[in-house]
Amino acid sequence: MPKVPFDPTWCPGCGNYAIWASLKKGLVDAGNPAEKTVIFYDVGCSGNMTNFNTYYGFHTLHGRALPTAVGTKLANHGLTVVVVIGDGGCYGEGGTHLINLMRGNHDITVIVHNNHRYSLTTGQTSPTTEKGDKTKSTPEGAIEEPINPIAIALSNHGTFVAREFAPDINRLSSRITQAIKHPGFSLIDTLQPCPVFNPHQSLEWYRERLIKLEDEGHSPDNLNDAWKQAMRIDKLPIGLFYEEVKPAYHEQVTELKDGPLVAKSIETIDLSILLEEFK
Ligand code: SF4
To answer: Which amino acid residue places its CA nearest to atom 1 of ligand 1?
Structure first.
């Protein structure tokens, strides 16, 4: 992949650097041609990545990277479609979109930069902020409980549900490759240190809590055990919680079975009935 002529503007120590490196390696290792790959970026520090990659990209409105990606996949399901989005955009503004992507098993890989804050806007609470955390918007400590993204994905038909830790680049890049190859929806909730607005959840904080699902004897085809691992509060498991292969959305649409919509000649599409309704 050619290099862009300028460097990222993220803060020193930001986990976005590691996710950026992992995404590039993961895409290359997946082997899909760059000209057939498109990345959708949401608003947030993670969205600045749109300027640092040479893949086709679309910087969308907040929370709307998800439905924009769906529209593109339906128009041309021959593309590899990836979403880069923060925890605020994915689980907050885009929360219902996320559930609908999972319900439809749209063949899209969603990589969430989960730093438990809205950091681009200087550190307000997000849906994943820990209860009690003092932030710019909660000077006395967050009152709400955090959501559990893995439990939400498991309960809403996610067919590839994973959590990884941003600084483990080899591990994260392999998971991204695996997610891209998964024939359906995939979510990688990526724990991302933000030393500026969430210094409490530091590298050391994570290292004390992280465990690997494969070391726990977990098998990703075991939904019951995935639930148990997702609900743990003693440790923070990373790895592939659950994977199931079933038809993707575009594979179930009659009009798309003989090829992508963009490849069809406009002359073969009968718009007369639709146009008649507008008369
Ligand atoms: Fe990274 Fe946090 Fe700085 Fe944003 S504010 S660039 S998430 S360290």
So the answer is: 14
Confidence of residue 266 (pLDDT cuts 50, 70, 90): confident
Q: How far is the CA of 10 from the centre of ligand 1 (A)?
A: 6
Measured from the Cα of 192, ligand 1's closest atom is 7
- What's the residue count for the chain? 279
Q: Is the CB of 166 under 6 A from ligand 1?
A: no
Give bridge partners of residue 173 from the DSSP assignment.
none
Residue 2 lies in a domain: no
- Between the CA of 199 and the centroid of ligand 1 the distance, in Å, is 11
* Gap from CA of 18 to ligand 1 centroid (Å): 12
pLDDT of 64-117, one tens digit each?
Answer: 999 999 999 999 999 999 999 999 999 999 999 999 999 999 999 999 999 999
From CA 274, how far away is CA 277, in angstroms rounded? 5
Q: Which residues of 167-206 are buried (b: 16+ CB within 10 A; e: fewer)?
A: bbbebbbbbbbbbbebebbbbbbbbbbbebbbeebeeeeb
Q: Which two tokens stand for residue 187?
A: 């979510």
Give the pair of three-digit tokens for residue 229: 């691992």
Task: List the CATH number of the domain containing 218.
Answer: 3.40.50.970
Whether 8 is covered by a domain: the verdict is no
